[in-house]
Amino acid sequence: MEHTLSYIAYKNSQYRSIKHSTYFETYDELFSRYRGKKITFVEIGVLGGGSLFMWREFFGDQARIIGIDLNPNAKKWEEEGFEIFIGSQSDEKFLADVKRIVGPMDVVLDDGGHTYEQQIVTTENLLANIVDGGMLVVEDTHTSYMPGFGRKKFSFMRYVARFIDRMNHRFSKISGPTDERVWSIQVFESIVAFHVNRAASSRVSAVTDNGGVQDGAIDFRHDDTSVYSKLKNFYLGSTTLKNIPGLKNLIRPVKRLSTLSKGSSRISKYFK
Ligand SMILES: C[S@@+](CC[C@H](N)C(=O)[O-])C[C@H]1O[C@@H](n2cnc3c(N)ncnc32)[C@H](O)[C@@H]1O
């Protein structure tokens, strides 16, 4: 932690900020690529101003650092060259005003109130303004496992799981709601990063073939399903059985059943 650039900037900030020790390596991993660049960085949750100064040192003077907070006290940091917006991150009208005034954003970091409603409304509303190659980062996502932040059924981490479903629905053979903004999601302890890339997220998924020489290899993927493979091999080895009309069709449901139950007793422990 001590050697990370974000921790050094945090320690150098003259105003108070409190952050978890595990966050600094994650910040360096996610944000180092933007250092010294002309970016627009938005942090939700200003509190004592300490993190605004930390980000200014970390990103450099070219970065436009913007703070959002419900507490009007945060407005005073405008005197230090930061842009400050006062309002609630769960107020869609307020967020629309922020988006209109700020314009495209490279990075949004949500360190606000940490309720599921705040985290999800913020993500859904601000993703639209993140540029391609940019990211929206939500921190303190451990609140999804704690009481007092909303109904667990609608926790932020459950939302992330549904978001992953939306990304996988882009696969051509699966239907369901999709997302065409987020190309990948990175999950760290207490931090989730949504990486925006509209072109990559809108690409049509289709089978490709490199046109190489066919050596006649058979796909054995169902052959480790014991019941099915035993039946199939027995059937294939018997001329009598192969001559019984319709028997082949009876083997098919066995294949489906054995695939369904495949290994579930061994893997169920990973779902507890
Ligand atoms: C954890 S503190 C931010 C700490 C700061 N980022 C730092 O590292 O020093 C959370 C801040 O979010 C603000 N906040 C809470 N609910 C909010 C909401 N609904 N909209 C905007 N800001 C909110 C609080 O006023 C508080 O200043």
Radius of gyration: 26 Å
In DSSP terms (H or I, runs of 4 or more residues), the helix count works out at 11
By CATH reckoning, the class of the largest domain would read Alpha Beta
Largest sheet: 7 strands, mixed
Order of helices and strands: HHEHEEHEHEHEEHHHHH
Brief synopsis:
By secondary structure, this protein is of the alpha/beta class.
Give an account of the 3D structure.
With 272 residues, the chain is of the alpha/beta class. The chain folds into two domains: 5-201, Vaccinia Virus protein VP39 (Rossmann fold, 3-Layer(aba) Sandwich); 226-271. The protein has eleven helices and seven strands. It has helices at residues 5-12, 23-31, 50-59, 92-102, 116-126, 156-168, 198-202, 226-237, 239-242, 247-261, 264-267; strands spanning 40-44, 64-69, 83-86, 105-110, 130-139, 182-188, 191-196. A seven-stranded mixed sheet has the order 3-2-1-4-5-7-6, with helices on both faces. The protein starts with a helix and ends in a 5-residue tail after the last helix. S-adenosylmethionine binds at residues 17, 19, 43-48, 50-51, 68-71, 88-90, 111-113, 118. The site of S-adenosylmethionine (SAM) has 21 residues, from strand 1, helix 3 and strand 2.
Map the helices and strands.
Layout: H1 5-12, H2 23-31, E1 40-44, H3 50-59, E2 64-69, E3 83-86, H4 92-102, E4 105-110, H5 116-126, E5 130-139, H6 156-168, E6 182-188, E7 191-196, H7 198-202, H8 226-237, H9 239-242, H10 247-261, H11 264-267
Parallel strand pairs: 1-2, 1-4, 2-3, 4-5
Antiparallel strand pairs: 5-7, 6-7
Bound molecules: S-adenosylmethionine.
